[in-house]
Amino acid sequence: FFENMAHVIQQPLTTLNSLYFEHQHGSLLETVEKIEGVFLSLMEDQVLNIPILCHLNYSKLAPWSLVRYRGMIQDMSTETELCQVMVDRPRNRTTLYQEDFADHFPGELGQEADYVERCRFHCVPVPGQTTWAEQEYMGSANEWVQHAFEREVDPNVRKREMDVECHSLPEPSKRPRPSDTSAERAIMETELEDEEDTGGTIPKQQQQQQQQQQREQQQPPRTIDCVAKMYRTGDRQPILNQLVELIGILQPHNATLERSGQDEEFAEQQFDCISGAVRCVLHVINLAPSPTVFPRSPKKLDAQSVHNSLLAFLTQLLDGDRLVATYLLLHMVSGVHDRKGSLVMGNLPLNITGLQTKRARTAVTVAWDLLLERHTSVDLGLNSLQACPLLPAKDFSRDCLVCAPLQLAPKTFLAVDETVLTEGQLQSQGIKNVGQLQRIIGSQTAQYDFQYHTIDVETDYPSIIFSTSKSLLHASCCVVPFCPSMGTGSSADTQAKAEENAQILRAWRVLINERQHSSSYSISDELKDNLEKDIEKEMKIRAEHFNRSPVVQHNTLHIWFTLARLLALSRGESELTFSTWQAVKDLEMERHVRLASLPPVSSTQA
Fold first, then answer.
1. Is the dihedral of CA 541, 542, 548, 554 positive or negative?
2. Angle 550-570/578-597 helices, nearest 10 degrees?
3. pLDDT tens for each residue of 572-587
4. Mean pLDDT over all residues of the chain?
5. What is the DSSP letter of 26?
6. Please, are residues 457 and 445 in contact by the beta-carbon 8 Å criterion?
């Protein structure tokens, strides 16, 4: 079946049907599990040959062809659906990985049928994904795939069946009028036809609406979202907000319309719509976690050298402030790696503060755009805070979870900008949003609103607060004052120089990515004893940092041990050494000296 990969990708149902009759044994669920195992094992070395479903090529993909799609699970159906799978032995056909209706089969089907459960969930493009990360994933597809489909797919079949444009949603933003004369001609012809049908009495407002609708249809979609359907086999379970790569069969939209039109009882769940998106339906054969766009590399980095060059770049970007650059580097490899009760291990929220914080905010945005896979921001202006909920809420009338700005995938970095604060009074929505931000930054949990109750959802959004003085959020942050030592430089020039050296830029990205997801870190028993003695000594020497309250003592030690882990990992060390521990203490001493040298905050500033 796998001699011709192009044929398998374009007509996977033929291969899966053949595998069904070859491996049919026991219950239907056991047979499906066996089919998927055999299919995926044979496809193991061919995954990169499977076309990627995205907004750039969705109209070129054949209906019922094999595709892969990477996104975040935004919502999951509350119920499973029971699917009838029909078998036509004389023709070696089944309705597996299709809808449970018989319109695809001419003539009469055999009497053999069985039922199997299937779950549904909603995937959306990765929120906050940076341009380079998207290009990195798109570049993972083998080049021949793009050209093979141009040659092999029958354009007449594609035009007739791949009618996903029917699900295109209008984009609310203003668009320029199409310059293509054919588009103009189509609009004019429609206007004339409409005038003839109504005797030339179409209201002007209706004409404008029709013209706007046609212009929107001429525009390509900005993104693809996906309703995924998956048989419940093995231990595969979709998890809310998880990043996944799906391999499955792309269903033409007209099949969904036929099915839902036949029986309203089986109508599709109304998952929340993404503005400007095309919605596709995917019958999933494999679901795999996909936390990063980088494959595991067999090559070992010279971590210490890459760490040093990255620190030099960040220092230059931050106008010579090496202290803030060091904390920023460590923050970029941070993230939640364990939870012990209320203690969130690995969480390192920063508060970059000072009169020139806006310069730091610009520099950090440039660094994140260049080095991180995904990030987002929240401005604490009055209008922004009160505009809409930051977290998703359940809409029971549509039985869906409504998208919100802070429904994000793990390891999405969050910037909170307090420099835009103005005087005014927060209303209920703004107060609620501030509380949610405090909860996310401090304990890395969020509360999703289900009308009569809330559900706690664990998050992993490494956060930085930018403020000119004391933070409004009162979170337990590591406060680092920004004190540039050089004149105002151009972030764009620094970024351009970094982009010129593609090899070192990729090494920076790989270092950050590997250390974010690293689990190889330990502290030897001998070092634990030495650290215990050293901490006792430090508590006597630096009494002002430890003896104020148990909370301060706890926070200080938590920051020290978190920084020690991050510094060791960023240097390529899998085990903490005393020299790294000493470097962390020196770093913290420098930070506290800088904090002490700042002018006192007035009551109005606080």
1. negative
2. 120
3. 999 999 999 999 999 9
4. 80
5. S
6. yes
